[in-house]
Amino acid sequence: MSFDGEAAGWADDPAVKAMDDLFLSTMRELAAAGKLTTGGVRMLDYGCGPGSKSFALLLADDDAIRPREVVAVDISEPMLAALADLKAKIEADHGPLPLEALHVDPAPRQIAALASFDVIAPGYVLHHIGPDIEDEVYATLAGALAEDGWLVASEFDDDAHANSGAIVGKLAAQGLDQIEIIRPEFDMEILYDF
Ligand SMILES: C[S@@+](CC[C@H](N)C(=O)[O-])C[C@H]1O[C@@H](n2cnc3c(N)ncnc32)[C@H](O)[C@@H]1O
């Protein structure tokens, strides 16, 4: 599924804003609980879209969740153009932000050269990774995560956790054990016209 046509309005969609708020509040809760923090870390925003989750963290007023550096990657040039627009607008008010955005291949070989990351945060992207490339994608993400790093995936789910369960299984198969899944209460139909 291509997101090129969704890029222009993505960050302003109320459902996306609700998911960004959930991401931010969950990161605050996890940091407060001493479980995991994005504070002071180097983070990979995988499947970043317009980067609104990363911007939310970078603009946070508490050190506990503000990363020191973000690399944001996506396969969609229009999404990265939307990110560049948003970044320019935010930086006009707040000054330079430590966020580098990069276009990557669907099986993102480029990520290995950028490693390592303390936190990898795929936002609603892992369910889009097809079976033809998923082994390569999961191995690449696992290889790019620092020792003791966390993978924090935002993902839709059902009551049986079928989607997130499958994703956790694939990550665990790559040797990852520090995994957190952030699940919105609403379903993906709110965003996509299935
Ligand atoms: C549902 S959107 C989510 C965007 C953003 N993470 C968010 O939470 O608002 C999924 C994004 O993943 C990107 N994407 C899909 N497959 C990808 C892949 N193999 N590698 C990197 N990005 C991918 C899409 O282009 C799109 O921008």
UniProtKB/TrEMBL annotation:
Q: Which domain of life is it from?
A: Eukaryota
Domain Methyltransferase type positions: 44-151
What keywords tag this UniProt record?
A: Methyltransferase, S-adenosyl-L-methionine, Transferase
Supply one GO BP term: methylation
**What molecular functions are annotated in GO for this chain?**
methyltransferase activity
InterPro entries with a match to the protein in the record: Methyltransf_12, SAM-dependent_MTases_sf
Q: Which PANTHER family match?
A: METHYLTRANSFERASE, UBIQUINONE BIOSYNTHESIS O-METHYLTRANSFERASE, MITOCHONDRIAL
Give the protein name, as stated in the record: Methyltransferase type 12 domain-containing protein
